[in-house]
Write a structure and sequence with these properties.
heterodimer, A: 424 residues, five-stranded mixed β-sheet, disordered N terminus, disordered C terminus, B: 299 residues, flat
């Protein structure tokens, strides 16, 4: 393989034909991606190499935990590092990195946005410009026991009613399980309840709206579930895996979790619910709509990259439909293009009715696109957790959260009434 | 008299300084410099994630904000409460353990007693979390045996402290015991023997003979454990993450979240400096008061 132009993507040197790290395009990649995720990337980078022998790509590993990865990126980019050239970003980071001037707008490369999921594209825009392309998506799913109820609940009330009945009849221990620990996962669970009740975290103008009456009703509904024993109180210290164990052991009628659990729950050797569950979007309450919190990975270009053209070619290649299908097949990660969900190939690959996933994906709701999302979220997490653990009333908690979040926007000189039009 | 016209003593002083210089230099490099840097940083508005704000000098604004920050003040309260309760328990239990070990068959018993101290804190925290987490946990087994419904320990603001304090006591009591054991063995057997002959009962022998000999070691243990408990981080981080809400959040964890989670270097440095000044003041006061007493006794 010839060593021509160089690009650096952060993975350890996978395809390096020379040891010097600065002589290739570096692409970031979570370090845990040692198994399937790594295989698929390696295969794709090899094919890219055949197509573009003049570009050499290095894959550079980064920590798996999202928070640590972001810290690392911020430190690199803040120090003005010119590699990695291509960064794998979480959905909620794009505006932050764009506003800080750390990643470059992709408009110059005339990307074709037509086919990508609109909600994912929206989350990758900042001040009207597109800064990253969706690579794969994650959506919050409501898993339900198809052996205990006939269909996915059509409304939030129906969900509560059925959960109640199943717990009453002692067919399950818990009605509903979700991620209730104080971390980002709790915000995504809240976002689904919030959307179901017709509320939002920020309104269309970018002003904080978590203290609206609808938001209070959403949080009260979450707390009512805990108080009625439909949701176990232990869930307040649960992350994804504890929640999955409860459902997988047949203890819960409904579970809110990400698509990664699909394959694990289908494994009849370990799962007691194999073949006895299905998925849907989180159902609507009166005045709201069904919702599925959106997450996933995007690819963006370091603003200081000295080979942006090559970096763009790589991004364009990795986000093609056929690469997304391969990624879904090998690593189980959902494609970020709408058309693939109408492709028969995908249902064969995922072995799950694609209609159910599409239902969730069409109800996808992104978290607010703001450069200070992480800080807003950390204030919200604290108050949500206080309200759910009974240390504050939902209305008071959300009022306090809103006050703090407005303070963050003001400090950042962002948002309405803060003097800026939403950017530096 | 040396060629320089200095006395031998002056030359020795110079040599002593020269010999100390590397050590002093390293202390300056690894302790004083970072401290000064953090102090300087704390006088700026420096938010790594809002580079458009620049890094303006804001004098003491960060400190003023810290004093109005309810979460920070609550964290200070949590830390002080945790330090008081856990250290009190550790000193009491450590004394008992030391007395027991003093009589026990030495090697094996002491090694066994020291095991918790040797375990990495994060591992210990995860073990204790496992013991308390979930309806089927060991702790809930005990609760149910007592005829009570299972408790969600980590979801209750007060109960979440139980595994934290227990884990800390379990882990550090051996350290206290070891310190006290050393002191205990310096108590001459004749003194205890003489007290016995004079008709003192076991309690009187302990209170009037053994305990006074233990006091210096107890004060040292109190200082070490107190300062350690004030900096508690890893135990809480792994056990409760500071939750529910922020009900078990100590200052070190909050400062960490602000500094490395939110990357607010200015404000986070101000929080850290506040904690540093508080612990430093405590240590200084303590050494002044207790140290005087100790030295006074020895003189």
């Amino acid at each position: 393989m010839p060593c021509g132009a160089r690009l650096a993507l952060p993975l350890a040197a996978v395809l390096a034909c020379a040891p010097a790290a600065e002589s290739g395009i570096a692409v970031t990649f979570p370090a845990s991606a040692v198994g399937a995720e790594f295989e698929v990337l390696r295969a794709q980078l090899e094919r890219f190499g055949l197509l573009h022998p003049e570009i050499r790509v290095l894959a550079q590993r980064t920590p798996d935990a999202a928070d640590q990865r972001r810290q690392l990126y911020v430190q690199w980019l803040n120090a003005g590092a010119d590699d990695p050239d291509v960064l794998q970003l979480d959905l909620v980071w794009t505006p932050e990195f764009a506003a800080a001037g750390w990643i470059q707008a992709l408009d110059a490369f005339a990307p074709d946005p037509g086919d990508f999921l609109p909600e994912a594209l929206r989350a990758n825009r900042w001040e009207g410009r597109l800064y990253a392309l969706p690579w794969f998506v994650d959506v919050g799913l409501l898993y339900w026991r198809s052996d205990l109820v006939e269909s996915a609940p059509g409304s939030f009330e129906a969900l509560v009613r059925e959960a109640d009945r199943a717990v009453e009849a002692q067919r399950v221990r818990f009605g509903l399980v979700w991620q209730g620990a104080r971390y980002e996962g709790l915000v995504t669970v809240f976002l689904e309840h919030l959307t179901a009740f017709g509320g939002s975290i920020l309104d269309e103008r970018g002003a904080v709206a978590v203290d609206s009456p609808r938001a209070v009703r959403a949080l009260e509904a979450m707390r009512a579930g805990l108080e009625a024993g439909l949701v176990p109180r232990e869930a307040l210290s649960w992350h994804e895996e504890e929640v999955r164990f409860a459902f997988q052991n047949g203890q819960a009628l409904f579970m809110r979790n990400w698509p990664y659990a699909l394959a694990l729950l289908r494994d009849a050797e370990r799962s007691r619910v194999a073949g006895r569950f299905a998925v849907a979007a989180f159902p609507a309450a009166p005045g709201g709509r069904a919702a599925a919190a959106l997450g996933g990975a995007q690819l963006a270009i370091n603003a200081r990259s000295d080979r942006p053209e090559a970096a763009w070619r790589l991004i364009e290649f990795l986000t093609r439909p056929e690469q997304m299908l391969e990624r879904a097949r090998v690593a189980g990660q959902l494609p970020a293009r709408r058309s693939l969900y109408e492709d028969a190939a995908l249902s064969g690959i995922l072995r799950v009715p694609v209609g159910q996933l599409l239902d969730a994906i069409e109800h996808a709701v992104a978290r607010p696109a703001t450069p200070v999302y992480a800080e807003l979220s950390s204030h919200l997490q604290v108050w949500l957790h206080r309200a759910l653990s009974g240390q504050a009333e939902p209305a008071d908690a959300l009022a306090a959260a809103a006050r703090e979040m407005r303070g963050v926007l003001e400090r950042a000189r962002l948002g309405p009434g803060a003097g800026g039009e939403g950017g530096p | 008299v040396s060629p320089g016209g200095r006395t031998l003593r002056a030359r020795e002083v110079r040599l002593a300084w020269a010999l100390c210089l590397p050590a002093l230099g390293s202390i300056a490099a690894v302790a004083l410099f970072p401290l000064a840097w953090a102090g300087w940083e704390s006088l700026h508005l420096h938010d790594l994630r809002m580079p458009w704000l620049g890094r303006p000098f804001v004098a003491l604004a960060n400190y003023a904000a810290a004093l109005r920050d309810a979460r920070f003040l609550a964290a200070l309260g949590h830390t002080a409460g945790f330090a008081a309760v856990s250290v009190a328990l550790e000193l009491a239990l450590g004394t008992l353990l030391a007395l027991a070990l003093d009589g026990a068959r030495r090697g094996l018993a002491r090694t066994a007693a020291l095991l918790p101290w040797a375990m990495p804190t994060v591992v210990a925290a995860l073990v204790w979390r496992f013991l308390f987490d979930g309806p089927g946990s060991a702790a809930n087994g005990v609760v149910q045996a007592l005829g009570h419904a299972p408790v969600a320990w980590l979801a209750e603001p007060w109960l979440a402290w139980v595994p934290i304090v227990l884990a800390d006591v379990w882990k550090t009591t051996p350290f206290v015991a070891l310190l006290l054991l050393a002191a205990l063995q310096s108590v001459p057997a004749e003194l205890v023997e003489a007290a016995r002959i004079d008709g003192a009962n076991a309690w009187q022998r302990f209170w009037h003979v053994t305990f006074p000999a233990l006091r210096p070691a107890l004060l040292v243990a109190l200082l070490f454990r107190g300062l350690d408990a004030f900096r508690v981080f890893d135990l809480v981080f792994a056990l409760t993450g500071g939750g529910p809400g922020t009900a078990t959040e100590p200052v070190a964890l909050y400062a960490y979240e602000v500094l490395l989670g939110e990357l607010r270097f200015g404000y986070g440095s101000a929080l850290s400096m506040t904690v540093f000044l508080a612990t430093f003041a405590l240590a200084w006061l303590y050494v002044r008061l207790a140290g005087a007493k100790l030295l006074g006794r020895e003189r």
